[in-house]
């Protein structure tokens, strides 16, 4: 799956999940509230009876007060009385965090029922009846919600994946079409390209005059450019079908060889090369690493200004390639690794280069950082081994 | 305890009536004379007014503008008693008497 496709899929799934989870939470909340309401209504019938009994006891106490001073108690419930000004007159309740606006509610593991008295016995306007909330209904409901939740999430996940595939199908088709086209083109490029390069290399340049030599050089540069493009296309279409040949080797000779390969292209554009190359062991597939270097160098040449400079520095665990081109904007930098994206449409190519680089770098766990300043140039730093760990 | 002891109690009671608060000076003697229980009146007022502030406000209004409609006593009471005269006490004295009345007979803090 391509990065762009993956990113679209991720965004869609995120949106889908947020929406469906919100709906799920809403549905569960409504269900929870309705279950709580049902439980409270069941409790209320019982608590209304308790309140009636307690009111009779309060009336008796009112009549005989202060000869009788003991507040009436009952083993089935606890109670409290409050006056019209919400002041507590007496309470045997466990929780005195009371709500005068509701007639029945749950709080701190208890259920409170509020009865407004017609006659204010002992000055009480509000009688609170408290019974413990055994949470049996809650456990039962949570169990049901849990099962329903898991099933709903699984179902929604499947629907989400199906929808995501449905929505990304047009994008996938167009990319597949492009891939197929490139594959076919690549196949057709191989033979004529090999013929051109073999013949160009076979010509004895010393036997030619300056004018002809320059023409030959131009042919060679053009052929090498196409060859580099061919290698990229081959990598994209055939990667995965070819077994990797990973080994420990010195990066320096490979880098020198690739610099030499691009020498003609640099000379044609009047680009000066400043290189500092030290021995740098690396563990990778030579051909894949060559693709990384070729793409980075090719970009540095392609997007450099005429008569510019390319600085290449190789140290153990670190390669830095710097150009003096026009630079890349911040927006373009964020999309630079997307396949088929080119940050400068005036230059040729398919926009495959950095996608390939990213795939190889990710494969080996290397670190690649690209920085740029518009009008000044671009800096690419590749790190591997201990440099990545210690970064 | 002989004559000396009895004299001492009388002196103390007398001094209490003279030097007591507004409630003792202005309410108790009349209620005693009319044989109207202050406790009974208080409990009746509680049944109607419930809260402290509400009850004091209600009683204050009644004492200044007495009528059968605003009285906390039932119709039975008025068969043997007539309606009282409007109070001539100042607002400060009335408030002091009502505060003392509440403190003396209140239910809050007196239940077990």
How would you describe this structure to a colleague?
The complex is a heterodimer of chains A (391) and B (112). Helix content of chain A is 54%, strand content 18%. Chain A is of the alpha+beta class. Chain A folds into two domains: 132 residues, no CATH class; 145 residues, 2-Layer Sandwich (Heat Shock Protein 90), CATH 3.30.565.10. In chain A, helix 1 runs antiparallel to helix 2, helix 3 crosses helix 6 and helix 4 crosses helix 6. The two termini of chain A are 29 Å apart. The model of chain A has no long low-confidence stretch (mean pLDDT 85). Chain B has one domain. In chain B, helix 4 crosses helix 5 and helix 5 packs across helix 7. The chains are: A alpha+beta (391), B mainly alpha (112). At the A-B interface, strand 2 of A face helix 4 and helix 5 of B.
Descriptive tags:
heterodimer; A: 391 residues; alpha+beta; Heat Shock Protein 90; 2 domains; 5-stranded antiparallel sheet; 5-stranded mixed sheet; 9 helices; 18% strand; B: 112 residues; mainly alpha; 7 helices; 0% strand; globular
């Amino acid at each position: 799956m391509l990065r762009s496709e993956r990113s679209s899929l991720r965004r869609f799934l995120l949106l889908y999940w947020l929406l469906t989870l919100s709906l799920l939470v809403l549905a569960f909340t409504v269900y929870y509230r309705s279950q709580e309401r049902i439980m409270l209504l069941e409790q209320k019938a019982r608590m209304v009876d308790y309140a009636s009994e307690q009111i009779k006891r309060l009336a008796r106490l009112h009549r005989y007060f202060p000869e009788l001073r003991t507040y009436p108690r009952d083993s089935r419930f606890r109670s409290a009385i409050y006056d019209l000004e919400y002041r507590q007159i007496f309470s045997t309740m466990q929780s005195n965090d009371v709500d005068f606006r509701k007639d029945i509610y749950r709080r701190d593991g208890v259920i409170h029922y509020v009865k407004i008295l017609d006659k204010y016995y002992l000055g009480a306007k509000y009688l609170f009846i408290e019974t413990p909330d055994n949470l049996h209904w809650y456990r039962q409901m949570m169990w049901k919600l849990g099962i329903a939740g898991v099933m709903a999430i699984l179902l929604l996940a499947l629907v989400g994946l199906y929808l995501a595939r449905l929505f990304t199908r047009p994008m996938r088709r167009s990319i597949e079409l492009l891939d197929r086209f490139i594959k076919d083109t690549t196949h057709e490029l191989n033979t004529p390209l090999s013929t051109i390069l073999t013949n160009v290399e076979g010509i004895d340049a010393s036997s030619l005059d300056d004018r002809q030599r320059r023409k030959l050089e131009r042919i060679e540069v053009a052929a090498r450019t196409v060859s580099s493009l061919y290698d990229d296309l081959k990598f994209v279409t055939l990667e995965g079908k070819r077994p990797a040949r990973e080994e420990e080797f010195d990066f320096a000779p490979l880098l020198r060889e690739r610099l030499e390969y691009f020498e003609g292209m640099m000379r044609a554009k009047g680009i000066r090369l400043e290189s500092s190359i030290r021995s740098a062991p690396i563990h990778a597939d030579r051909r894949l690493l060559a693709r990384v270097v070729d793409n980075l160098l090719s970009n540095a040449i392609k997007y450099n200004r005429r008569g510019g400079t390319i600085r290449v520095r190789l140290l153990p665990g670190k390669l830095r390639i710097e150009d003096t081109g026009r630079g890349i904007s911040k927006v373009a930098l964020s999309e630079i690794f997307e396949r088929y994206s080119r940050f400068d449409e005036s230059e040729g190519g398919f926009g495959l280069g950095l996608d390939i680089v990213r795939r190889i770098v990710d494969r080996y766990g290397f670190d690649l950082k690209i920085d740029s300043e518009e009008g000044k140039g671009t800096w690419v730093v590749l790190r591997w081994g201990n440099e990545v760990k210690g970064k | 305890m002989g004559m000396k002891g009895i004299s001492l109690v009388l002196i103390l009671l007398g001094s209490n009536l003279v030097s007591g608060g507004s409630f003792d000076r202005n309410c108790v003697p009349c209620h005693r004379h009319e044989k109207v229980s202050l406790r009974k009146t208080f409990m009746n007022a509680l049944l109607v007014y419930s809260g402290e502030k509400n009850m004091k406000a209600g009683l204050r209004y009644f004492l200044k503008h007495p009528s059968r409609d605003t009285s906390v006593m039932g119709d039975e009471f008025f068969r043997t008693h007539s309606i009282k005269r409007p109070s001539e006490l100042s607002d400060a004295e009335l408030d002091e008497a009502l505060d003392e009345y509440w403190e003396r007979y209140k239910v809050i803090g007196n239940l077990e």
